[in-house]
UniProtKB/TrEMBL annotation:
It comes from Brevibacterium permense. Pathway: Amino-acid biosynthesis; L-serine biosynthesis; L-serine from 3-phospho-D-glycerate: step 3/3. Belongs to the HAD-like hydrolase superfamily. SerB family. Pfam families: HAD. This is phosphoserine phosphatase.
């Protein structure tokens, strides 16, 4: 941790922090991990890569990828959860926002069954992600509930901002893919984290090192202006 983040990690002036999950809050792409158990890892990873680059419609690409998981036992989800690793600095960033009385929410194109338990370990209860349909202990190859596509991410960000009565200028959104553009553009500080070029072009700031403590530095720098 550098000197700036050491000085500000106890708290930062952020009322609302909304983060993408896969390759942002965590190091992995969850659907790629699940796909590896189904023997379709390379195929799903290719679709994921193109979707994050904005080359494919996200909702359609999600449906295609999830369909390839049909027939997997739901116990695979427990195994995948054990493979998840938090991105360096994620716990520090969350703690800094919580210490200042701010809210942290996760908005993900991934899956609630994987993400929510991981988020709970850091005291994050606001998790918005896709549901996986399961029947007789097997994945059906379909999602259930609201699909968290790019427009849903942007809408959820606005709903959280309004519900909490937060100052937009004191809000931060962080993501890595084209599906995060809407919420990143809506935030007071939109951060592209080790991101695809489409998001970098839309963001206020870009972090190239895989350490979320860099966001603490960005917020601190803005506060000092």
């Amino acid at each position: 941790m550098n000197e700036t983040s050491q000085a500000t990690a106890s708290q930062i002036p952020v009322q609302l922090l909304v983060m993408d999950v896969d390759s942002t809050f965590i190091n992995e792409e969850v659907i790629d991990l699940i796909a590896a158990h189904a023997g379709v890892g390379d195929k799903v990873a290719d679709i994921t890569e193109r979707a994050m680059a904005g080359e494919l419609d996200f909702a359609q690409s999600l449906a295609e990828r999830v369909a390839l998981l049909s027939g997997l036992p739901e116990t695979v989800l427990d195994e995948v959860r054990e493979q998840i690793t938090l991105t360096e600095g994620a716990a520090d960033l969350v703690a800094a926002v919580h210490s200042s009385g701010g809210k942290v929410a996760l908005v993900s194109g991934g899956f609630t069954a994987i993400i929510a338990p991981v988020a709970a370990q850091l005291g994050i209860t606001d998790v918005f992600a896709n549901g996986l349909d399961i029947h007789d202990g097997l994945l059906t190859g379909r999602t259930n509930g609201r699909v968290i596509d790019p427009s849903a991410k942007a809408e959820i960000f606005e709903d959280l901002l309004a519900a909490g009565g937060y100052d937009r200028a004191a809000s931060v959104a962080i993501g890595d893919g084209a599906n995060d553009i809407g919420m990143v553009e809506a935030a007071g500080l939109g951060v592209a984290f080790c991101a695809k070029s489409a998001l970098v072009a839309a963001a206020d700031a870009s972090v190239e090192t895989r350490d979320l403590r860099a966001v603490i530095d960005l917020v601190a720098a803005r506060a000092d202006v």
